[in-house]
Amino acid sequence: MGTCMYDASVPVLRQMLGSLDAILEKAERHAAKRHIEPAALLQSRLFPDMFTLSRQVAIACHFARSVATELAVVDAPQAKHAGDSFADLRALVAEALRVVAALTPAQFEGSEQREVTVHAGTPHEGRFSGEKYLLHYAMPQFFFHVTTAYALLRHAGVEIGKRDFLGKF
Predict the structure, then answer these.
(1) CA distance 55 to 10
(2) What is the pTM of this model?
(3) Which of 68, 89, 118, 119 has the fewest CB atoms inside 10 Å of its own CB, making it the most exposed?
């Protein structure tokens, strides 16, 4: 029996986007309580060659929208600029949640065999079956950026833990 593509994507994306929103809310409260300029958190990086927190959130939201809509074969609305505030990032997460939540299991029928082509920031393209795209490319990418956002905030002293990362399931 093959992978139920809807079940392997939409509920997981919704769970993790929800947790991302919750940790951003905690980070915003943390900054206000400790009189930390929000930009100090939003522009933080784990290492100079890595993306900022704002960019990590934007990329996670991009993957959530694009993987789900690619497999469901629906047009993904263009995301707005990630913004420079916690409110902007939370709005971006909310928009990704709306897109993902609007999808139905019927839209994913046959998607495990559908060919997906990606251009991972390079002129080289990768071709995957829908199942391989979801399980071996898109979801790992999504989790990488959600995890990095979590790590940045935890490193900055925001009181979050594994339960916050996992969110509600």
Answers:
(1) 22
(2) 0.92
(3) 119
